[in-house]
Each structure stands twice: as C-alpha cells, then as structure tokens.
From TrEMBL:
It comes from the Bacteria. GO terms for biological process: L-amino acid transport. Belongs to the ABC transporter superfamily. Coiled coil: none annotated. It holds the Pfam family ABC_tran. Residues 6-239 form the ABC transporter domain. InterPro entries: AAA+_ATPase, ABC_transporter-like_ATP-bd, ABC_transporter-like_CS, BCAA_Transport_ATP-bd_LivF, P-loop_NTPase. Keywords: Amino-acid transport, ATP-binding, Cell membrane, Membrane, Nucleotide-binding, Transport. One of its GO terms (molecular function) is ATP hydrolysis activity. This is ABC transporter ATP-binding protein. It comes from Acidovorax carolinensis.
Length: 241
C-alpha cells in the first residue's frame, strides 16, 4: 500500500476558455496534514475542486487510495470517505445546526440515530456546535458557521478531509480553537489537505507543504523546513512566515 493516500500527476484543468491548472503534481501522505499554500489566484481552490470532481481534469490523473478517481462524479468521490469543506462553507442557512449535521450523517434518518459517541467527540472539538444545536445555522457568526461546516464534514469517520481556508475572516481566539481542533483530528488518524493563508495556522499544523504558483506546484517538502527558510519563503510566497 502506498504511503500516499492522494496523488495528482500532471493534472490540467480548464474552466471554459481558461486554462487554470498547468500540470499539477501533488501527494498527500497518509495520516499527515498537508498544507497547500500560494498567492491568491495560484490555483489552490481549483485543485481542491478538481480532486472532488466539481471540475474535471482535462489531462492527468487523480488517484485516491490507489484508485483512479479522475473522471468520477462528485457523489461517488464523496462516497469513498472523502469530505470537502469549501471556502464558502456550504452551510444551509435556513436549517438548524442539528439538521445540517443530520444531512451529512448518511447512516442516520433522524437525530436519535446519529452516533452519540462521535457527536460527543465533536462537541468537545467544537463546543459551539452543541451550544447552538437547535439554532438556525444562518444566524451564527462566521466562526461558528466554520465550526459547523467542519463538524458536519466529520460527523462520520473520514479517510480524507479537504478544507479550503478554514481560518479566513475569523477572530484570533477562534483561529486558535480551530487549530486545536485540527490538531486533534490529525491525532485521530485523519489525513488532511488544507488550503490556508494564515501563516500561524500553517506553521502550527502542517507536516508537509506544497506551494502553488501559476497553476503548478513549485515546491513540495517539509512544512518545518519551509518555516525555517526565510529566503525560500520570500521566493515562493513573496513574504516571510
């Protein structure tokens, strides 16, 4: 069995007339948290959406757990125990937090059938989910919605969790809470691919890192090594971590 749970090789993605990804090579090792970094417009979100089949690669391959998923439809990809939290979080605003969670719990037809042990674990990770359980999700703050979005993604055990900018627009205290939650998720054995702009977030959590520019991965390696090399940071990201 490969040490890499997810592998992209030579992936190109076109959106209409636009050629966004130009041969992306990316590996996500099992049981680790991989950071996907890069300037705005580098192709990070397009990479995540291509993995999930929301946009299909026009060339190259996407392999998950050894299986070619390049041309599969999104529901089938999600059914392989992959959860995706988009940048806009995808919260159903008119539904309660409980109803949002129930939609993702495919084995439960009602709240009473949800795994109580797992729910209690999620409540410890994200206390706001329990606190606002019966509140309309649309009434929550941005940070609370983000917690609900991640909690919903892990209401059932996942092999791979893909999250697009979980700390975007959040207050520092909530970011620290989110860092602790992802650290616990990582320790539970979940493989995580994370797009992030918050450098503190990246340094605290990342095991491995891939840096994108102009639709390609231009650097891949240890997050700790990148965090220690200011010259490399400036050349890749235009700033020092």
């Amino acid at each position: 069995m490969s040490d890499n749970l997810l592998e992209l090789k030579g992936v190109h993605t076109h959106i209409g007339a636009y050629h966004i990804l130009h041969g992306v090579d990316l590996v996500v090792p099992r049981g680790q948290l991989t950071m996907l970094l890069g300037r705005n417009g580098a192709g990070k979100t397009t990479t995540l959406r291509t993995i999930m089949g929301l946009w299909h690669a026009s060339q190259g391959t996407v392999r998950f757990a050894g299986n070619d998923i390049t041309a599969l439809p999104t529901p089938q990809i999600a059914g392989m125990n992959i959860a995706y939290v988009p940048e806009n979080m995808g919260i159903f605003a008119d539904l309660t937090v409980k109803e949002n969670m129930l939609l993702a719990a495919r084995k439960a037809r009602n709240a009473a059938q949800m795994d109580t042990t797992r729910l209690e674990w999620i409540f410890r990770l994200f206390p706001a989910v329990e606190k606002f359980w019966n509140h309309p999700a649309g009434k929550l703050s941005g940070g609370q919605k983000q917690m609900v979005a991640v909690a919903r993604a892990i209401i059932e055990p996942r092999d791979l969790l893909i999250v697009d900018e979980p700390s975007k627009g959040l207050a520092p205290a909530i970011i620290n809470n989110m860092i602790e939650a992802f650290d616990q998720l990582k320790k539970s054995g979940v493989t995580i691919l994370l797009v992030e702009q918050n450098i503190h977030f990246a340094k605290r959590l990342g095991d491995t890192v891939a840096v994108m520019d102009n639709g390609q991965v231009v650097h891949a390696g240890s997050m700790a090594a990148l965090a220690e090399d200011e010259a490399l940071q400036r050349s890749l990201l235009g700033l020092a971590l």
